[in-house]
Specification:
Elements: H1 2-14, H2 40-47, H3 49-52, H4 67-72, H5 75-84, H6 104-118, H7 140-150, H8 152-155, H9 171-176, H10 179-188, H11 209-221
């Protein structure tokens, strides 16, 4: 009998029966529920990398790996944007409470991971930093003057594009970005394209909070009332203009 038991045990080990009934996965083979995933790398790759870049350095959306951006934006704002999205933009809501797929715990894990991986505490210590959100409405008339001082050198007269920068008054572009997105770009620049943040447009003369608000108000004033309408001279048909 003892020999029979030993043979049965050996056969069971050989065929994998020691793991339990056939078809039952071992503990290390159990698939994790999507709502239980808390690993930052997995959450970021699945939900953020498509727009913000594989390494967080940007794509169609703001670069999350920019320490200047992270020094300006609070965790509260990051959590709100991830959870609820930004209306009228490509930034959709990711929290389950707003129609997305992530739990509150997963949103918190994303925000903590972004801060832990890419922020540089104390980066702007001692710097007069304009607030991330506009403290009030800007002055579009004054904003035109601010634009000429700080932006025209790259983006050309009237924001229609220049040798060193693209058009920033194109109706299609302005229709796709929110007021806050415009302010964020003025504040943090576009490092990957060589565009400086609010301190570097005119060396030694950083933009003030009022300057930032006013130039954003001027840009917003260029936004067409009805985006997507035929360009002037198009005959109003919207046909092929190749």
């Amino acid at each position: 009998m003892r020999r029979v038991a030993l043979v049965a045990a050996a056969l069971g080990a050989a065929c994998g029966c020691s793991r339990g009934p056939p078809g039952r996965p071992s503990p290390d083979e159990v698939i994790q529920r999507p709502t239980e995933v808390l690993d930052f790398a997995v959450l970021y790759a699945s939900n953020c990398a498509g727009c913000h870049g594989v390494d967080g350095r940007g794509g169609p959306a703001v670069p999350l790996a920019d320490p200047v951006y992270l020094a300006l934006v609070s965790d509260t704002v990051l959590q709100r944007v991830v959870s609820n999205g930004v209306p009228a933009t490509a930034m959709s809501a990711f929290a389950r409470s707003s129609g997305g797929m992530l739990t509150e715990v997963q949103v918190d894990a994303l925000v903590r991971g972004i801060r832990r991986r890419w922020a540089r505490p104390g980066l702007l210590q001692g710097v007069d930093v304009p607030p991330y959100a506009a403290p009030g409405p800007g002055n579009a008339t004054r904003g035109a003057q601010v634009y000429d001082t700080y932006c025209a050198r790259c983006h050309g007269p009237g924001g229609r594009g220049g040798a060193r920068g693209s058009s920033i008054t194109d109706g299609s572009f302005l229709a796709l970005v929110s007021d806050q997105a415009l302010r964020t770009t003025v504040l943090i620049g576009r490092p990957s394209l060589g565009a400086p943040d609010w301190r570097g447009n005119v060396p030694g003369h950083p933009m003030s909070s009022e300057d930032v608000s006013d130039v954003v108000a001027w840009l917003v004033a260029q936004r067409p009332e009805f985006p997507g309408q035929p360009y002037p001279g198009g005959g109003g048909t919207g046909g092929d203009r190749r």
